[in-house]
């Protein structure tokens, strides 16, 4: 079985490609990342096609001033160029083509001409659901929604129609696709994993009750609800660490809930995150929408109980009441209740942290993910052959 993977940037594609290579199934990885970064995942240069100039241009465009972005949105051009370049580099002997959503329409068509089974990777909820809930959230605060370019929106919906299968990482994402009429037989549901060598627990250096958030500081990540909950609780000897890049949209909320015990840290390289997770007492992700936040199994591997919303995909990994708690989106009172419960019961917090650590080690490593994916691909090929 020969599998070709195409991605813009990195995402979890490098873990997928690494697993496929180790199992003898990777035909080619097409990416915009440089080869010297990609080989760090155990993928040989001979199996990598890198379109690095696109990555450089994309990063430069993302750093341009907002007024310039408003005048010219290069997002569609970038995604279409990635797709065009990838379509031209799909080997004709590919059995399974795996392409990332929004950059794979032409590639899916070319792979089908090669006779390959096509799989579209979608890490977030259905594009229509995602757009609706983000628009709703931004409008709640009188802000301009940060949603996909209209051309990318339409392109992705077309990819959903043309792909043979769509790979999704969580039941939450799967349900959004079912709600928009995608048949269940078209959906491949495999949760992401965690690198247990990179994410491990080291001793906590103090007794401070510390809430950890890791990820972009944005409305989408629900950081404003976490700030409100932490501020209103006002727990003695407690801290909130916000690890990740700061967005302009979050600065007013930091001022509104100004607190000397709230610390903005990072962002940090992935290889260093375990040190910061390990200084926490609980990991909290109050996201409005995402597919399956990879920070959740990372935090669990470092011995933290997790509080996350129903829209994080966390329910696939976090057993409510055993490894942490699942709460509704935008529910500040639920966040306060669960944080207070762990604060007042440190032994419960430790027990949940141990349970969480055991949970990911027994079924949610990248090796577990790779085994499930390869099994799925083989079944797809068998179904194709009848």
Count of structural domains = 2
The shape is globular
Could you name the CATH homologous superfamily of the largest domain? Glycogen Phosphorylase B
Question: Strand count, sense and closure of the main sheet?
Answer: 7 strands, parallel
Radius of gyration: 21 Å
Strands side by side in the biggest sheet: 3-2-1-4-5-6-7
Name of the CATH architecture of the largest domain: 3-Layer(aba) Sandwich
What fold name goes in the CATH topology slot of the largest domain? Rossmann fold
Beginning-to-end CA distance, first to last residue: 16 Å
What class do helices, strands and sheet pairing give? alpha/beta
Binned, the helix content reads 40-55%
* Average of per-residue pLDDT values: 95
| Number of continuous helical runs | 16
**Share of residues in strands:** 15-25%
Q: Any low-confidence stretches, pLDDT <50, length ≥5?
A: none
Helix and strand pattern: EHEHEHHHEHEHHEHEEHEHEHEHEEHHH
CATH class of the largest domain: Alpha Beta
What's a concise summary of this model?
This protein is an alpha/beta fold and 386 residues long.
Report what the structure shows.
- The structure is a single chain.
- The protein has 386 residues and is of the alpha/beta class.
- The chain has two domains: 3-193 and 366-385, Glycogen Phosphorylase B (Rossmann fold, 3-Layer(aba) Sandwich), CATH 3.40.50.2000; 209-363, Rossmann fold (3-Layer(aba) Sandwich), CATH 3.40.50.
- The protein is 44% helix and 15% strand.
- It has 16 helices and 13 strands.
- The protein has helices at 13-22, 35-38, 52-62, 66-71, 75-87, 105-113, 127-140, 150-162, 171-179, 223-233, 251-256, 273-277, 295-301, 332-344, 346-363, 366-385, and strands spanning 3-6, 26-31, 48-50, 96-100, 117-121, 165-168, 187-189, 209-214, 238-243, 262-265, 282-285, 306-309, 324-327.
- The strands form two sheets. The protein has a seven-stranded parallel sheet.
- Helix 10 (223-233) crosses helix 14 (332-344) and helix 13 packs across helix 15.
- The longest helix has 20 residues, at 366-385.
- The chain is globular and about 65 Å long.
């Amino acid at each position: 079985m020969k599998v070709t993977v195409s991605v813009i940037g990195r995402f979890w594609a490098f873990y997928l490609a690494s697993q496929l290579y180790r199992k003898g199934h990777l035909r080619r990885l097409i990416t915009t990342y440089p080869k010297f970064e990609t080989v760090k995942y155990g993928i040989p240069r001979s199996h990598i096609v890198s379109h690095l100039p696109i990555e450089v241009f994309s990063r430069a465009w993302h750093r341009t001033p907002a007024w310039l972005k408003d005048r010219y949105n290069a997002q569609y051009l970038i995604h279409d160029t990635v797709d065009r370049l990838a379509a031209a580099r799909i080997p004709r002997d590919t059995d399974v083509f795996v392409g990332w959503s929004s950059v794979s329409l032409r590639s899916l068509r070319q792979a089908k001409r090669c006779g390959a089974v096509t799989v579209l990777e979608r890490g977030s909820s259905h594009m229509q659901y995602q757009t609706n809930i983000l628009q709703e959230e931004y409008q709640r605060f009188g802000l301009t929604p940060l949603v996909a370019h209209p051309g990318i929106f339409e392109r992705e919906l077309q990819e959903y129609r043309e792909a043979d299968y769509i790979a999704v990482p969580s039941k939450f994402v799967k349900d959004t696709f079912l709600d928009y009429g995608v048949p269940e037989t078209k959906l491949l549901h495999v949760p992401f994993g965690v690198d247990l060598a990179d994410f491990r627990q080291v001793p906590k250096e103090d007794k401070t009750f510390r809430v950890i958030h890791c990820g972009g500081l944005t409305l989408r990540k629900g950081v404003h609800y976490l700030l409100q909950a932490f501020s209103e609780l006002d727990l003695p000897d407690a801290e909130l660490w916000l690890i990740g890049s700061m967005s302009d949209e979050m600065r007013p909320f930091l001022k509104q809930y100004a607190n000397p015990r709230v610390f903005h840290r990072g962002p940090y390289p992935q290889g260093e995150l375990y040190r910061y997770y390990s200084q926490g007492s609980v990991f909290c992700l109050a996201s409005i929408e995402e597919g399956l936040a990879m920070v959740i199994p990372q935090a669990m591997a470092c011995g933290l109980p997790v509080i996350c919303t129903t829209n994080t995909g966390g329910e696939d990994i976090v057993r409510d009441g055993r490894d942490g708690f699942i709460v509704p989106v935008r529910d500040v009172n639920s966040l306060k209740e669960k944080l207070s419960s762990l604060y007042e019961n440190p032994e419960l917090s430790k027990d949940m942290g141990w349970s969480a650590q055991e949970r990911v080690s027994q079924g949610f490593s990248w090796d577990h993910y790779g085994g499930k994916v390869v099994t799925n691909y083989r079944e797809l090929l068998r179904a194709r052959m009848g």
